[in-house]
Amino acid sequence: MNREQLKPEISKIITTGSLKTREKMQHICNLIQENLPTYNWVGFYMAHETEPTLHLWSQAGEPTDHTVIPFGKGICGQVAVSNKNFVVDDVKAQDNYIACSIHVKSEIVVPLFKNGKNIGQIDIDSNTIKAFNEEDERFLEWVNEQVATIL
Ligand code: SME
C-alpha cells in the first residue's frame, strides 16, 4: 500500500468504536510502519499537560529508550517549540539530535495541533538517507488531523 491507499485504512481505525484512543494510535503506527518501506520507526510523542516534556504514547519499530524528551532537545523537542515540520535529510548533520538507533539516517517530525495548539507530534525514522519529501509532510499532516479528532 502507498500513502494514498493507507488513508481509508487510517480513517477506518479512527472510526472504530471498540478501540480506545491510544489503541487507535498504536494501530496507525503499526499500519504505516508495516506498509511504507522507508518508514522504519513510527511513533507519537505527546506533550505533558503541565510539564515541558514529550511522552511516547505509541510506537512501531525497534523499542527506544527515549520515551520522555524535554522540549528543545533533539529533533522532537525542537518541533515542540517551533510548531513547524522538521525534515532531516541526514541525521549526522544535526547537532541537536537524539540517536535512537545507529541505523537511522533520516527523520521527519510533524506537529499535531488540536484547536490550534501544538499538543504532540508524529515522528518517523528511516534507515534510508533523505527518505522524506513534501508528499510525506502533507500525508503526515493529514494523519495528525485525523488523530486530533479523537484527542
Ligand atoms: N531522533 C529523535 C528522538 C526520537 S527517536 O527518533 C525515536 C530526536 O532527535 O528528537
What fraction of the residues are assigned to beta strands by DSSP? Answer: 25-35%
Helix vs. strand class: alpha+beta
- The count of helical stretches stands at 4
Summarize the biggest pleated sheet: 6 strands, antiparallel
Distance between the termini: 26 Å
Q: Mean pLDDT, rounded to whole units?
A: 97
Rounded to an integer, what's the Rg over CA atoms?
Answer: 14 Å
CATH fold annotation: Beta-Lactamase
Outline: globular
> Can you identify the CATH class?
Alpha Beta
What series of H and E elements makes up the topology? HHEEEHEEEH
Number of distinct beta strands: 6
Number of domains: 1
The CATH architecture can be named as 2-Layer Sandwich
**Ligand set:** methionine sulfoxide
Strand adjacency order, main sheet: 3-2-1-6-5-4
Oligomer: single chain
Provide the low-confidence segments as ranges.
Answer: none
CATH superfamily: GAF domain
- The residue fraction in helices comes out at 25-40%
Organism: Nonlabens marinus S1-08
Protein name: GAF domain-containing proteins
Pfam families: GAF_2
Please give a structural write-up.
This protein has 151 residues and is α+β, with helices and mostly antiparallel strands. It has one domain: 2-Layer Sandwich (Beta-Lactamase). The protein is 34% helix and 26% strand. The protein has 4 helices and 6 strands; from the N terminus they run H-H-E-E-E-H-E-E-E-H. Strands 3-2-1-6-5-4 form a 6-stranded antiparallel beta sheet, with helices on both faces. A hairpin with a 7-residue loop joins strand 2 and strand 3. Helix 1 packs parallel to helix 4. The longest helix is centred in the first third of the chain and has 15 residues. It is globular and about 45 Å long. The two termini are 26 Å apart. Bound molecules: methionine sulfoxide. The site of methionine sulfoxide has 15 residues, from strand 1, helix 3 and strand 6.
